[in-house]
Amino acid sequence: MDPKLINDCVHCGFCLPTCPTYALWGEEMDSPRGRIHLMKQHVEGTPITPEMAGHFDACLGCMACVTACPSGVRYDRLIELTRVEVERQHVREPQDRAVRGIVFSLFPYPRRLRLLRPTMWLAERMAPFLARANPSLGAMAALAPRVEHRQRLPRLVRARGERRATVGMLLGCVQREFFPQVNAATARVLALEGCDVVVPPEQGCCGALSVHSGRDAQARRLASRTVRAFERAGVETVVVNAAGCGSSMKEYAELLGHEPPFRVADLSEYLAELGPVAKRHPLPLTVAYHDACHLAHAQGVRAQPRELLSAIPELELREIPESAICCGSAGTYNLLQPGAARDLGDRKAAAVGTTGAELLVSANPGCTMQIAAAVRRAGGRIRVAHTAEVMDASLRGVTL
Ligand code: SF4
Ligand code: SF4
Asked: Pfam families annotated for this entry (predicted)?
C-alpha cells in the first residue's frame, strides 16, 4: 500500500460524526481515523492481528468518511487494499470462513442464485431456526425477498420513437435473479426516453462484492469478463441500476490497470444528463428517498434521483433525517456483521418513520430490503421501490 495515501490523513476528526460504526460504539478504532492509524501500524511492520482484522471487518465501506474528509483522503482505496491484506494474512474462525465461503460462492454467480429462487418463500419462515445455528444464516434468510417471475430481457430493447442514444445495460446478479422487475423497468424507461438498450447475454457479475471484500483475484476475473462483454457489444456507455455495481465499475481502471472502452453511468445520472422527452404522468404518492451509500458517497450522485422524482406531477418527495448515515446493508455487511447491521437498520427505519412517507425509494434493492425488514421488526410496514420502477410507472401512466 502506498504510505502517501495513509499520510494524507491529518487526524482532524471531521469524518468521525458521519461514521456509522463510530456512532454505534464510540470507539476510536472503529472510526475512519482509528482504522487509518491501524493501517499505518501495519504498513510500518505490525502484522494484522485478529483485533485489527475485527476493526477492518466492522467497517461498512459506506464511504461517508470520504464525503466528509476535507483533506481528500482516499479511504475507499485504503480500505480496499487493506481488505486484500486481511484476506491474505488473517486466519478466520471456522464459522466465519464457512459463512464467507457460502456468500462468495453464491452471490457473484447468477446461475447459482437462480437455483435458490424456488426456496425463497420458505426462507423468511426458516430465519428464526437458522439464526439459532448461525446469526449470519438467520440474517440471510430474514432478508430474502419475495421474488417476482423471471423476466428475461432480449439482447436489444429498441428505443420508442426517435432514437437518441445507444447504451449497454448491466443486469447484476442479485438484481437479475431476485429483482427482475427492476431491470425490466430500467430497460423500459431508457427505451421510452429514446435509447436503444443493448443487454449482452454473456455478461456476469461485475465483481463489486469481491472487490469490496478483498477478494482481489475473483474481482479482477469478474471485472475482465464484464469489460469483454460490453466491449463486444460496442457501446460507449453502460447504464447501471445498482449502486454498488456502478461504483465498482467506475473504478475498473484502478482494479484492472487500464481504462475500459466505455464509461459507466448510474441510471439516474444518465437520465438527468439525457434530459426528458417522455411525458410524465402523475403519481399521487409521498416518497422518502434513501441515499444508497455507493451512489451518494462513492459516486456523488445525490441531486439527480431527487430531480427525477420531483419532476413527477403529484409526487411529494420527503427527506430522511441523517440521510448520510448508512442503513447497514452495505453489500454483504448485513450477512457478515448481522448485529451491527441490525442496529443501523433500526436507526434508519426510525428516521424513515419520521417522514410519514408511504413509499421508500432507493437505487439499491439491498438497502430497501434492509430498511423494510427493520420497519417490520418495529411493527410497521412500508412499500418499497427502486427509482427505475417509479419512473417506469410515471412514464407509462400506470399505478405503482
Ligand atoms: S467507510 Fe463508513 S464505516 Fe467505514 S470508516 Fe468510513 S464512514 Fe466508517
Ligand atoms: S480521514 Fe480526513 S476527516 Fe478523517 S481524520 Fe483523516 S483527514 Fe480528518
From this structure: CCG, Fer4_8
Q: In what order do the strands lie in the sheet with 263-266?
A: 156-157, 195-198, 165-169, 237-240, 263-266
- Mapped onto helix, strand or coil, the DSSP state of residue 333 is helix
Asked whether 65 lines ligand 1 (CB < 6 A), one says yes
Decide: 333 in ligand 1 pocket, CB within 6 A: no
Map out the domains of the chain with their CATH numbers.
3-89 (1.10.1060.10), 285-396 (3.40.50.1860)
Of all atoms in ligand 1, which is nearest to the CA of residue 18?
A: 7
Atom of ligand 1 at shortest distance to CA of 35?
Answer: 5
The finding on whether 69 has its CB within 6 A of some atom of ligand 2 is yes
- Do residues 352 and 382 touch, judged by C-beta distance below 8 A? yes
Closest CA to ligand 2's atom 3:
69
Number of other residues whose CB lies within 10 A of the CB of residue 278: 16
Q: pLDDT tens per residue, the chain (400 residues)? A: 778 899 999 999 999 999 999 999 999 999 999 999 999 999 999 999 999 999 999 999 999 999 999 999 999 999 999 999 999 999 998 888 888 888 888 777 777 877 777 776 666 667 677 777 777 767 766 766 666 677 789 999 999 999 999 999 999 988 888 889 999 999 999 999 999 999 999 999 999 989 888 899 999 999 999 999 999 999 999 999 999 999 999 999 999 999 999 999 999 999 999 999 999 999 999 999 999 999 999 999 999 999 999 999 999 999 999 999 999 998 888 888 989 999 999 999 999 999 999 999 999 888 988 998 899 889 998 999 999 999 999 999 999 8
The pTM assigned to this predicted structure is 0.89
**Beta-strand pair 195-198/165-169:** parallel
Q: How far is the CA of 325 from the centre of ligand 1 (A)?
A: 10
Nearest atom in ligand 2 to the alpha carbon of residue 12 is 8
Centre of ligand 2 from the C-alpha of residue 11, in Å: 5
